[in-house]
Specification:
With 540 residues, the protein is α+β, with helices and mostly antiparallel strands. It is built from 14 helices and 22 strands.
């Protein structure tokens, strides 16, 4: 493949990955949000929030600012990621520069800042990364003015032991970003630097053409992992969506290593331009450390309770982080086509109970794919790829007399029940044990601004109300759920202590409801200083 053609293809892929509809939101550790921009392509090329920091840190520590910026884009898409970690023993990525835990300590010492600053402040994170890279460049004898001279240092920084994964990360991700101009704060790369990078990309394109096609997904590439076993005659019954908590090459590079003791069937890169298959769909990949429990999945497929989720699922990893604020359209589109192919081959329903998040099934220590994964549009894209009519609101009710209303309306059959909250309520997955895919929280205050769970009653009579929440010390000990009938009359209330009994159903009370749309409202009206949690309500 010639270099001009390669450059044109990469540019097209870049354009495809821009998501004009997704505004970028930076979420703080306290679940606060701030709007920082719109179109992903624009923010990726210019990074106006951080260009001055890349430039200053590069000059301070004698590291090419363009390289710092391209590395940040390749590892985190300029997100201050939290370092949740997806794989036991695998590398975590922290902050804008995707620092490892060890590099946080090293960089804090070299840059004369605290480790907490490195973890929470973008400028400190960039300076720490530049300091680490500079120190390693000195040891390696790097020609600092030459971008490709930094290859070994960058590979070590990214924690990539696998030589193929290292080459793929450098050329397929960092150098591609440099060639596109993503890594050039202010002015574009010099002609010499651009020629240097394009030469490396041309060599990498030749290598890519020699890769074997994936056995179950023709447009993917085959990178077999040794970490799998037999399903024991079982067929896949659902698909699990994961995030790598890091870059694409590092993800498949680790999962094809015997030391990982983990795998997935597929890994989707950040632009959707490449998908790696690691395990055949007929085999059992090791991607989720949880027995299946239907209470975490709308009380569906309860016959699988106690069985390994791996035995009955296909696992898909996605380059990126559960904490990131938006997802590239190209990646979502490619993943949707892949899921369509899997569900067709195995007769899997295309709904929110058969296409589920890792954190939903393993809520005690995983949150991926995170609160901002676009579930509704994702399911629509999957169904569109398959030429079927989407059903984004499948019936979650295990019996005709029971209705469960989740905090995420994408999980609800809105003909039966739905939730309404104001903009003062914030979504979160910070505390484990939530029902479905997250929860809403709001501070207590003397305001009429409750979370309203609406449900339709066809026959008047008494119903028992249960509530689900995530427990923590900052929760209200007197959270009040108020019941209203279809005429809007207040018919009773129940008070619960949300500091305890999290991660399960708790009875609130039993009330007489009328035909039509009734509701249960979680009130905020209390003395300030606490938090109330609107996670899920069950009517039975």
């Amino acid at each position: 493949m010639n270099r001009i053609l390669l450059t044109s293809m990469v540019a097209l892929l870049w354009t495809a990955c821009g998501n004009a509809d997704a505004s970028l939101v930076v979420k703080g550790g306290d679940d606060s949000e701030r709007f920082v921009g719109g179109d992903e392509e624009v923010s990726a090329r210019t990074a106006p929030l951080y260009d001055a920091d890349f430039q200053a840190a590069g000059e301070e520590f004698d590291v090419p600012p363009a390289l710092l910026k391209a590395l940040s884009w390749s590892l985190t898409r300029y997100e201050m990621v939290t370092g949740e970690g997806e794989f036991e023993g695998g590398r975590v990525s922290i902050g804008l520069m995707g620092l490892s835990a060890e590099a946080v300590t090293e960089g804090a010492l070299l840059a004369h800042v605290s480790e907490d600053q490195v973890r929470t402040e973008a400028k400190a994170n960039i300076r720490a990364a530049a300091a680490v890279l500079s120190a390693r460049a000195t040891v390696a004898g790097v020609e600092r003015a030459k971008l490709l001279s930094w290859s070994t240092v960058i590979g070590d920084y990214a924690g990539l032991d696998d030589l193929e994964a290292r080459a793929a990360f450098l050329r397929g991700e960092v150098y591609t970003a440099l060639e596109l101009g993503v890594g050039a704060p202010g002015d574009a790369l010099s002609e010499d630097a651009r020629a240097e990078v394009q030469g490396a990309l041309g060599e990498y394109a030749d290598v890519q053409q020699g890769l074997t096609r994936a056995p179950d997904f023709g447009s993917g590439v085959w990178r077999p992992s040794p970490n799998f076993n037999s399903r024991g005659g079982e067929r896949p019954k659902f698909v699990v969506i994961h995030t790598c908590e890091g870059a694409y090459s590092g993800c498949w590079g680790w999962l094809t290593n015997t030391r990982a003791g983990a795998s997935a069937h597929y890994v989707v890169n950040s632009t959707g331009s490449e998908i790696s298959q690691l395990v055949r769909e007929s085999d059992r990949a090791w991607h989720i450390a949880a027995e299946y429990q239907c209470s975490r999945n709308g009380n569906q497929m309860c016959g699988l309770n106690g069985a390994s989720s791996n035995t009955h699922s296909v696992g898909i990893e996605h380059a990126g982080f559960a904490s990131q604020s938006s997802w590239p359209a190209g990646q979502i589109d490619a993943s949707a086509r892949l899921v369509c192919n899997i569900t067709k081959d195995w007769g899997i329903a295309r709904d929110r109970f058969h296409i589920v998040g890792h954190g939903q099934l393993q809520p005690w220590n995983r949150t991926d794919p995170g609160a901002n994964w676009p579930w509704t549009s994702y399911l629509q894209k999957i169904n569109a790829a398959c030429g079927t009519t989407p059903n984004p609101n499948p019936n979650p009710n295990p019996t005709p007399t029971e209705v469960i209303i989740d905090s995420n309306n994408a999980n609800n059959n809105q003909a039966k029940g739905y939730i309404q909250v104001s903009a003062n309520w914030k979504s979160s997955t910070n505390v484990a044990g939530y029902y479905g895919s997250g929860y809403w929280h709001a501070p207590t205050a003397s305001v009429s601004d409750g979370a309203a769970f609406f449900f339709k009653v066809d026959t008047a009579g008494a119903r028992t109300i249960d509530a689900w929440w995530t427990a923590a010390s900052d929760r209200s000990t007197g959270a009040t759920f108020v019941a209203f009938n279809a005429q809007g009359d207040r018919i009773g209330e129940g008070t619960v202590n949300q500091t305890i009994n999290g991660g399960k159903w708790n009875q609130v009370g039993r009330f007489n409801f009328t035909v039509g749309w009734n509701k249960i409202v979680l009130s905020r009206w209390q003395a300030p200083g606490k938090v109330v949690i609107a996670d899920a309500v069950r009517i039975r």
